[in-house]
Amino acid sequence: MSTTLESDALVILRALYDLADADVCPTLDLFERLLGVDKGRGFALITQLRAAGLMPPDRLGLTMAGLAVAVALPATEPRPMLSAVRPSCAA
Description:
The chain has about 90 residues and is mainly α. The chain has helices at about 5-20, 30-35, 40-50, 65-70.
């Protein structure tokens, strides 16, 4: 198993810090929409952060180690969010 975090996982880490600073409660759906990834991918990235000890196992937050890493990361520009409701392909 690799101990190197993926760049999207680091984006989630920084987003957790920024959301906490803005007093916004994070959700898995919010991260998936911010990153433009599907449901399985968002969960896998959060699992990766938890395995590295940067997120607690019981909530979407930062451990002290996660806070230290998140603060050291450069701020990222938000990507256009995916819509929560996807349009249907009605003809």
